[in-house]
Structures are given as structure tokens and as C-alpha cells.
């Protein structure tokens, strides 16, 4: 959502990031959701990555977290309804929950009490507003992932936990992925995921994640330059849609149940994945 808003001319400067789209271009947020659904997405994610009260405090703005979280879910539901008239397949809305601070700065993770309080507030709002499940995205420490998952589970919604890690399989905190999965497994999430990682690294990381858990796993990669080649202040696309779909096919063969796209991916990437996968089985639960 963030990079797609930017591609369409919306300011995504920090700390608001994609939340600014809700303020200045809500119709564009609906259109982005709709474009992904029409491209073949089965799941869209609410534009709530940065709608916690901490974000507005950091921006020295009045707290609009509840208002904009509500709007974000409403916009996702609006897009699903619009897409539903053109397609009869099931389409889910995932409620996005992100690290309270910076995805790449595990040293900034707040205290345990702050984590539980603020993630609980966000999770409860998303659940009450009617998302289908909660997606804990880009988690860079075991401590925050555990706190967020614990309170998210208390809403009664299903929870998928997604980590960001380096190519060697460690979280940005330096903690091994194996320890993260082992620690979080006790909370019985619905599944585990990796996101915002270069597809080239996901190719080697997915077998390791698959071996760690019997639960469903998801993959959605970042198509900018890999972590050791990134250039500051400029997002440079490193993998085009057709090549990304080839990576996605390998993740599917390796056992990924959910495949999507993170930063830099566009509806064209989802369309390429959907076309490469062919007819998909739909199950009821």
C-alpha cells in the first residue's frame, strides 16, 4: 500500500507513511485495494500499518488513530464489495498490525507494558470493525511479536505472524528465526510468514521456515534492492513482475499456502502470480 500510494503521487513521508493516504486521498486507497482484487488477489490488507496513536504522537499531530483505523477498514470493505460484483470467489480482509516503532530498528521496541497496551488497542479496533483475520507484519523482534500475537489472539480472530529477517535467517534483532517460531508457536497462531524480504533471499529461507512448523506459511517479498545493496532515499525496483511470479511458483512448490507482494509490488505482480498458478482450490473453514 505504501509504495503503491507513492507510485500514484501520494506523499508517504514518515512517520505517517501510508496513513497519509487515508487523510489526503482515501478514494485512491479504495482504488488500490480494488485494483489488486481485480488483478486476482484473494486477500487485501487494511491500510492500518501506521494508524496507531503512537504514530500521530510522533508526528506531533492530534490522535486520529481510531478515526483512521475505522476509515481504513471501511475502505477495504468498500473495495471488496465492489470487486464482489465482478467475481464470486472468496475475498478476505486482513487487519494489518505493524511494529509500533520502526520495522528496521529493533533497538526502538517499547517496553512490554506499552507493547501489550497499544497492540491490544489496535487489535481490538480491527477485530470490532470486522476484519477477517489479523496480520502481524514485519515483526523484527521476538519480544514484540509475542506481545502483539498474545493480545491479538484475545480478540478471538485468527492471527498470522509475519517476520522480517536477513538473508542468514536472523531477525533484525539478531535472534534466529527458529527461536522466533518456537517461541510464538505456544500462542497457537493460525500461521507464520516472512515479508519485506528480497525474493532471492526468500527462495532459501522458505525451506527453513517450512521445516520449523506444520502450520500454514506465507511469503510476500520486497522487490527493491536487497538489504546489502539498498540506496538511501530511493526505492529502486530490482525484480519485475514476470520474474517475481517465477519466485512465487518456487515458494508454492516449497509449501507456501499464501503468496503475495510487499513493498514495490503492483497489481501487475499479483496478476502475474495468479496467472502462473492457474485455477486455485477454494476451501471453506
What's a quick, concise take on this entry?
The chain contains eleven helices and seven strands. With 285 residues, it is an alpha/beta fold.
Can you give the helix content as a percent range?
Answer: 40-55%
Distance between the first and last residues' Cα: 28 Å
| Poorly predicted sequence stretches spanning 5 or more consecutive residues | none
Strand content: 5-15%
Produce the secondary structure layout.
Blueprint: H1 2-7, H2 19-24, H3 26-39, E1 43-45, H4 53-58, H5 65-84, E2 92-97, H6 112-129, E3 133-139, H7 142-153, E4 158-163, H8 177-185, E5 191-195, H9 199-212, E6 217-221, H10 241-253, E7 258-261, H11 267-277
Parallel strand pairs: 1-2, 2-3, 3-4, 4-5, 5-6, 6-7
Mind explaining what this structure looks like?
The protein has 285 residues and is α/β, with parallel strands linked by helices. It folds into 3 domains: 1-97, no CATH class; 100-189, no CATH class; 194-277, no CATH class. Helix content is 45%, strand content 13%. It is built from 11 helices and 7 strands. The protein has a 7-stranded parallel sheet with strand order 1-2-3-4-5-6-7. Strand 4 (158-163), helix 8 (177-185) and strand 5 form a beta-alpha-beta unit. Helix 3 (26-39) packs parallel to helix 5. The two termini are 28 Å apart.
Amino acid at each position: 500500500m505504501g509504495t503503491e500510494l507513492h507510485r500514484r503521487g501520494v506523499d508517504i513521508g514518515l512517520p505517517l507513511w501510508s496513513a497519509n493516504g487515508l487523510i489526503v486521498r482515501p478514494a485512491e486507497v479504495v482504488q488500490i485495494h480494488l485494483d489488486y482484487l481485480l488483478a486476482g488477489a484473494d486477500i487485501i490488507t487494511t491500510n492500518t500499518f501506521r494508524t496507531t496513536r503512537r504514530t500521530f504522537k510522533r508526528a506531533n499531530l492530534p490522535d486520529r488513530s481510531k478515526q483512521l483505523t475505522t476509515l481504513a477498514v471501511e475502505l477495504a470493505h468498500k473495495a471488496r464489495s465492489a470487486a464482489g460484483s465482478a467475481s464470486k470467489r472468496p475475498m478476505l480482509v486482513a487487519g494489518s498490525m505493524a511494529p509500533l516503532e520502526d520495522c528496521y530498528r529493533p533497538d526502538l521496541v517499547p517496553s512490554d507494558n506499552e507493547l501489550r497496551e497499544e497492540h491490544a488497542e489496535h487489535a481490538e479496533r480491527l477485530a470490532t470493525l470486522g476484519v477477517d483475520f489479523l496480520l502481524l507484519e514485519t515483526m523484527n523482534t521476538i519480544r514484540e511479536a509475542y506481545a502483539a500475537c498474545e493480545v491479538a489472539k484475545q480478540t478471538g480472530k485468527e492471527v498470522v505472524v509475519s517476520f522480517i529477517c536477513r538473508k542468514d535467517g536472523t531477525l533484525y534483532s539478531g535472534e534466529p528465526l527458529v527461536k522466533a517460531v518456537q517461541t510464538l508457536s505456544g500462542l497457537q497462531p493460525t500461521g507464520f510468514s516472512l515479508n519485506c524480504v528480497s525474493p532471492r533471499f526468500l527462495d532459501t529461507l522458505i525451506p527453513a521456515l517450512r521445516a520449523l512448523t506444520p502450520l500454514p506459511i506465507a511469503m510476500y517479498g520486497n522487490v527493491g534492492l536487497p538489504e546489502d545493496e539498498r540506496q538511501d532515499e530511493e526505492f529502486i525496483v530490482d525484480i519485475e513482475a514476470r520474474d517475481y511470479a517465477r519466485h512465487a511458483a518456487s515458494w508454492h512448490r516449497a509449501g507456501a499456502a499464501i503468496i503475495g507482494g510487499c513493498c514495490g509490488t503492483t497489481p501487475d505482480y499479483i496478476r502475474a502470480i495468479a496467472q502462473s498458478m492457474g485455477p486455485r482450490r477454494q476451501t471453506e473453514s
